[in-house]
Amino acid sequence: MRPSTMQMSARSPHIETTSRKAAKDKEEAAATQAKAGTNNSHQSPPRPTLTSRGVDDVVRGIESMKPCTTHGFRLELLPTMRICGVFIDAFTEAYSISLQMDSNVITALNAASAVCNKPMFGPVWKDVAKLEYVKAYYVTKGVKYILDEGRDDMAHNYAVFANYFEQTIGVANKTQPEVIAAKFAELLNGDMNTLVKYYRQHIPCNCLDEKYKEVKSITKLGFCCYSECPIPNRTVERKKMLYCTQCRVANYCSRECQVAHWPEHKDGCLKYMEKKAKLPKSPVRKSPSPKAA
C-alpha cells in the first residue's frame, strides 16, 4: 500500500535530525583530531601511500587471480592487426575446404597459402610481427578448444596452423632452411601427449599444466614418411623410429621403409642440405670447464 503524504512527512524530521546530529558529531571529532595532530606531529609520521610500482604490483596480483582467457594472445594489438584477422579467416577457410576434398595436410596448407598469396596480404607475409600474431591466434584458439570446448579434433588442426607459421617465421629469420612437413603429420594425427606438450611450450601461462599431467603417460607416436608404409596410419612409437642421418628430418618406422623411400627422398634431402649450408652459422656455446677436484 502506498504511504500517505502525512506518513511520508512524519518520517522526514527524524531523518533530518539524525543527519544533523551525525554531522555535528563528525565536525567535533575532526576538530579534536586536528588539535591532537598539531600537538603530536613529531611523534606520528604520515601514513605512506602506494608508489607507482606498488600500484602496479597490486593490479598485477589481482589480475593473476582472474581466469586466463587469452593464453598470451595480445588483444591490445588488435587495432593495428586488422589485416591479420582477414588473413586468418581466408587461410582457415581455404585449408578446411581443401582438406575435405583431398584429406592431405600438405595439399591443404599449400592451397591455403595460394589463396592468401594476394597483394592485400603482402604486409602479413613480409612482416614477422604479423606472422607472430597469426601464430599466437592459432595457439590461443587451439588451447581454448582443449580446455573450454573439449574439441581435440579442432585443437589438432590449429596446432598444424600454428606450427606452419612458426616454421614460416623460422625460414624468414633464416634459422631453418625450409618448412618441414613431417611435423604437421605428427600434430594432426598424433597423440594427446604430443599435442598438449606443443601448446604448453607456446603459452606463457600454466593453464595446460593439469591437462599435461593427465596425458604425459600416453605413448608418443611418430609418423613414417614412406607413403607405402604397411603400418596402419603409418604411426609407430616415436622412440623406436629411425631418421635420415643426412637431413635428420625424414622419419621412418623401419629400415625397409627408409630404403624404399630413398629414391623419392634423395633430391629433396640434398636440396634441404644445400639450403641449410647457406644459413648463418649459429654461435657455438662453449661448455664450462670442469672444476678441479
Can you characterise this structure?
With 293 residues, this protein is mostly helical. 59% of the residues lie in helices and 3% in strands. It is built from eleven helices and four strands, in the order ααααααααααββββα. It has helices spanning 5-39, 52-64, 82-102, 105-115, 122-125, 128-149, 152-172, 182-189, 192-200, 209-215, 255-277, and strands spanning 221-223, 235-237, 242-243, 251-252. The strands form two sheets. A two-stranded antiparallel sheet has the order 1-2. A two-stranded antiparallel ribbon has the order 3-4. The longest helix has 35 residues, at 5-39. The protein is globular and about 95 Å long. The N and C termini lie far apart (95 Å). Residues 1-23, 37-66 and 287-293 have low confidence and may be disordered.
